[in-house]
Amino acid sequence: MFLQGKASDWDISHNIYCLLDGHYTDNTLFKVIAKFLRESKISKTLTARTVVYESHVRRFWSSVKYEEIEKMICSTVRKKDENGQDIDIEIKFNVGDLRRVLELGDSDDDSTIIPERLCKGLWCRIGFTGHLNGKYLKTMFSTPYKFLIHCVVHALSHRKGAYDETSEYIMNIITCLVLNRAYNESQVIFNYMVDNVSKVYPDDDR
Known about the structure:
This protein has about 210 residues and is of the alpha+beta class. The chain has helices at about 20-25, 30-40, 45, 55-60, 95-100, 115-125, 145-155, 170-180, 185-200; strands at about 1-5, 50-55, 65, 70-80, 85-95. The strands form two sheets. The chain has a three-stranded antiparallel β-sheet with strand order 3-4-5. Strands 1-2 form a two-stranded parallel sheet. A hairpin with a 5-residue loop joins β4 (about 70-80) and β5 (about 85-95).
């Protein structure tokens, strides 16, 4: 996504889109992996170039709440109306809305838990040089797969910083992509958004 109006505390490496077009990758070591990602079910999530204003993001998280009964995340953003006046726009969405917008092609029946042996077995096959019970660092993989991990971490990770380290759910996403297994990415992303709501208002029952 394009980030507009970035302040000094804004992390420009967090949740960014990936340049996977052949124009950028065909003459590189990443040609095959880039083509794989372009044709994958997370292609839109990785490559969509949506303009995102920092003010909208900050406004969203400053007023966000989670409706437990409806299982909806609710918030507001501020925009100008046709007369140039500021108005608040209510936003409500659930995991199904997120799935539809990101076009992830998963379902509620898909698992969010992948057997550890599958992940570790795949890591060995794609050139991992570290300890299997240690941290999964991007630099410990072969170059093409290092690029794959780089793209998924920067586009989908919920946390800022530590971009060289691969978290468990990022491992699961990559494992299921490479092995062509079903995985409920939509639910995982939604769950981390809900978790962020509790961090914004840890003592608030809203």
